[in-house]
Amino acid sequence: MARVVLKLGDDISTDIIYPGRYMATVLPSETPQYAFADLPEFNSELRSGQIPSGSVIVAGKNFGCGSSREQAASCLKGYDLIVVAKNFARIFMQNAINLGLRLVVCPEIEAEEGDELEILPDKIINKNSGKEFKVEPLPKARQAIIDAGGLIAYTRQRLLARAASRKKA
Amino acid sequence: MAMTMVEKILARATGQKTARAGDVVEPKVSLAMSHENAALVINQFLEIYKDTGLKPKVWDPDKIAIILDHRVPAESAKTATNQKKIREFVAAQKIKKFHDIRGDEGGICHQILPENGYVLPGTVVVGTDSHTTTHGALGAFSFGIGATEMASVWALGRVLNVEVPKTIKVVAKGKFGRYVLPKDFILYLIGRISAEGANFKVLEYHGPAIQKMPTSGRLTVANMSVEAGATSGIFPPDEETLRYLKEEAKIKGPIDIFGPDPEAEYDQVIEINVSELEPMVACPHTVDNVKPVSQIGRVKVDQIVIGSCTNGRLDDLAIAARILKGKKIARGTRMLVFPASFRIYQQALQLGYLADLVKAGAVVMNPGCGCCLGVHEGALGDGEVALSTTNRNFKGRMGNPRAEVYLCSPAVAAASALTGYISDPRKGGK
After folding, report:
1. Percent of chain A at pLDDT exceeding 70
2. Measured between CB atoms, does B289 come within 8 Å of chain A?
3. Contacts with A, B 2-61, CB within 8 Å
4. Which ipTM was obtained for this model?
5. Do residues A159 and A133 both lie within one domain?
6. Could you list the residue range(s) of the whole structural domain that residue A98 is in?
7. B150 interaction partners in chain A (CB closer than 8 Å)
8. Of B111, B39, B114, the residue nearest B71 (C-alpha)
C-alpha cells in the first residue's frame, strides 16, 4: 500500500521539481535536499524524513515538462518516491527510467492527499474511494533498461559484451 | 515504404533500409553535445566503467561537443570547480569541439553548433539540453537527453532503445506581416496544440512560408518545438539550408541532403496561414498560454530580456536596434541583452547594433544562458514582471517563484521597452 503525500496539477515543470538555481549541484547523492524547494513545506517534510519511502506523488498531465535536467529525477529517486501521473514529458520519463525512479502512467487517476493506493501492474486501486484506474505500460523501448536495473548497469552490460566479443575475434 | 524525415534519418543511422514509427532502434550518433552538465555526465560515465576492468574512453572524441554557456563566467566556487573538472576531462579525452569562456569562440551551445558547421542534415544529434531540438532547423534529428543517457552515448556511440517517433506535419502558408516573426509562428503553434500536443512526436515543417524563412528563424522555431512536447522539430533541408551551411557555417565540399517521401504517413497535418498571425505573447506560467498582443491589456514590465538560444541572433538584435535607435527605454523598465554567441556579438558590435541598444539604456551582457533559467544573473524581484524573448515562462524560471515571465518576439520586446508596458510593435513610429 502506498500513501499519496502530494497532489499536483498539470504541466509540473522541472523548474518546480528542481529549481534551476540549484543546478550546480549535480550528484544524485546531493540533489534530494532541493526536491520541490519552492514548495517549502513539502521540501521540509522530505528533508526531515517524515515521508516514508514508497510514498506517492499524484499529478495531472505532462509531469516533468521543460528542462532535461536529470536532477529532477534523481532528487525524487533519493526519497524512493513513486510518481503517478496522467502522462509524463518525454525526457523526464527517460531520465526516471534510466535512474530507476518508479513512474506510473494512469490517465484517469483520481486521488487526494492522504489516500492509500494499491499499485498493480495493470491498475491502481484507490482504497479510500474504492475506485480502480487503468495503468498504461511504459514505452516498450525502455523495458530492457528497467530490467537491467537502470541505464548505467545496462550500458555496462553492453560494454562488457562488446569487449568480450572483440577479445574472441 | 514511404518515410517521414525522422524515419529516413533513423533508417540511415541504423544501417537499415527502412524505419517505421514505433520501431525500436539504436541509432549511431553523429554529434553528442553537453554544456556545464557535462560535469554530471563525466560522473555517470566513470560510474559505467567502475569495476569493469575497462579504461574509460569516449567512443569518438571528434563527435563530442562541450560548450560552457549556462553559468558563464562562473557565479560560484561550485560552478567554477565543475567547469574546471570539465576542462580536465576535455584535455584528457582529447575532445576538440570544446568552447570555453572566450570572446573569440564562446557562446550558447545552440548557436555554437550550427555556426561552426557541427550539425549536418540527415544526421542524429543528441544533447543534454531540452532545447537540442534547435538543430532540426538544419534537417537533423536532434533531441534532448539526460546526463546518464549521454554517459551511455559517450561509451557506446549509440542511443539505446529509441522508439521511432510519429510525425506531425505542419504546413505554413501565406506571408508574414510587418513585425510578425518566426517566434510568433511557433508561439501560435504551441498555443494551438498545447504544451503536450506533440509529446513523444516530431514536428516536421513544410510550406511556402517555411521555404522563405531564413535559417535564423528556423532555429527559433525548432528551438521552441520542445515547448509543445516534441522530441524534435525538423525542417527538411533545402536551398536555404545549403546557403547557411556553406556561407555562414563555412562547410566546404559536398553536402548530402534528402527530404521525406511525398507519400509518408503522418500522425496529423496542421495547416497555418501565417498572413493571419499577429505578434503573440505567452502569458505566465505556461508556454501554451498564448494570446495575440492586442488582447494582453495593460501589463507593466520591470525587466525586458532580448537574446538567448531562442532569439539572440543577428537579425533579432537588428530588429531591436532598429526599434530602439535614437530613443530611450522607459524609466522603471530595465533591459538585458544576451547575444547568442560571440560571433554574433562581434557582428552586432561592428554593425552598431550594440551601441544603439546601450545608448537607449540596455545592458549588453556576455553571450550565455544568463537570466533565462534563473541560475546566474538578472533575477527578478518579488512581484516583478519580465517580458522575454527566451523560451520558457514556468513559475520560478527566472529565479523567483513570486515573479511572472511573459514570452514574445524581439520586436514586441523592443517596442515594450519604449513604453514600459507590453506593446504592439506595429503601433510604434517607424
Report:
1. 100
2. no
3. 24, 36-37, 39-40, 43-44, 47-49, 52, 54
4. 0.95
5. no
6. 2-137
7. none
8. B39
β-pairing, A56-59 vs A2-7, is parallel
Chain-chain contact of B375 with A20 (C-beta, under 8 angstroms)? yes
B229: nearest CB among A15, A62, A142: A62
Rounded mean pLDDT of B8-28?
A: 97
Residues A131 and A144 reside in one and the same domain: no
B44 grid coordinates: 555517470
Instruction: Give the residue among B121, B373, B362, B160 at the shortest CA–CA distance from B251.
Output: B121
Neighbouring residues of B58: CB distance < 8 A, sequence distance ≥ 6: B45, B64, B93, B95, B154, B155
Residues A96 and A153 in one domain: no
B196 interaction partners in chain A (CB closer than 8 Å): 11, 61-62, 65, 87, 89
Residue carrying C-alpha cell 505578434: B279
Cα nearest neighbour of B53 on chain A: A160
Task: Write out chain B residues lying below 8 Å of A141, CB-based.
Answer: 24, 161-163
CATH code of A78's domain: 3.20.19.10
Distance from CA of A106 to the nearest CA of B (A): 16
pLDDT at res. B158: 97
Are A116 and A147 in the same domain?
Answer: no
**Interval A70-86 mean pLDDT:** 98
**Do residue A100 and residue A154 come from a single domain?**
no
SS3 of A83, please?
strand
Q: What is the rounded average pLDDT for all residues in chain B? A: 97
Nearest C-alpha in A relative to B397: A15
Q: Are A87 and A109 members of one domain?
A: yes
- For the stretch A117-147, what's the b/e string if a residue is b when 16 or more beta carbons lie within 10 angstroms of its beta carbon? bebeeeebbbeeeeeebebeebbebbeebee
Residue of A nearest to B143 (CA): A91
Task: Give the chain A residue whose CA is nearest to the CA of B202.
Answer: A90
What are the tens digits of pLDDT across the range B253-262?
899 999 999 9
- pLDDT value at B369 more than 60: yes
Structural domains in chain B, sorted by start: 5-272 (3.30.499.10), 280-427 (3.30.499.10)
CA distances from B79 to A32, B75, B84, B213, B424 (A): 19, 7, 9, 38, 39
Q: Which residues of A touch B78 (CB under 8 A)?
A: 24-25
- What distances in angstroms separate CA B407 from CA B44, B46, B58, B138, B400, one per listed residue? 35, 39, 39, 24, 16
